[in-house]
Specification:
mainly beta; seven-stranded mixed β-sheet; 0% helix
Length: 124
C-alpha cells in the first residue's frame, strides 16, 4: 500500500489543522496506522496509532487531549485532527502502517511502510 499524507501548513498557536493519510495501491485493512512527527534536528517521534478496524487508539502524552485520530471509511483515509496547536508541534508529520501488536506501536521500527510527510508549522 502506498501512503500519501496531506493537510499540513502554517497555523498560529492555538489554531487547528487536519491531516489526512490516504492509501493507494491497496487498503488499510488489517493494518495499524500510526502518525509520527520529526522536528529539525530531532528523532522521529510517535504521535498516535490505531487499528483500521477500530479499538483503542494510543496517543503520545504530549498530544493527548489535543489531537484525535479518526478513520473515514468512505474516503479510505486516516485523519489527524490537531487542535490547540503549539510551536513545539512544528514538524514534518508522517503516516505509516504496521501489523505489530499494541506494545510496538510507539516504535518507528515497527512500521515498514511510510508516507512522504507533510510539514506543519505553528508560528505567529
Amino acid at each position: 500500500v502506498q501512503l500519501q499524507a496531506s493537510g499540513g501548513g502554517l497555523v498560529q498557536p492555538g489554531g487547528s489543522l487536519r491531516l489526512s493519510c490516504a492509501a493507494s495501491e491497496g487498503t488499510f485493512n488489517n493494518y495499524v496506522i500510526g502518525w509520527f512527527r520529526q522536528a529539525p534536528g530531532k528523532e522521529r517521534e510517535f504521535v498516535v496509532a490505531d487499528r483500521w478496524t477500530g479499538g483503542s487508539a494510543v496517543y503520545a502524552d504530549s498530544v493527548k487531549g489535543r489531537f484525535t485520530i479518526s478513520k473515514d471509511r468512505i474516503k479510505r483515509t486516516v485523519n489527524l485532527q490537531m487542535n490547540s496547536l503549539k510551536p513545539e508541534d512544528t514538524a514534518v508529520y508522517y503516516c505509516a502502517t504496521s501489523r505489530g501488536p499494541t506494545s510496538t506501536w510507539r516504535q518507528p521500527r515497527s512500521y515498514n511502510n511510510w508516507g512522504q510527510g507533510t510539514l506543519v508549522t505553528v508560528s505567529s
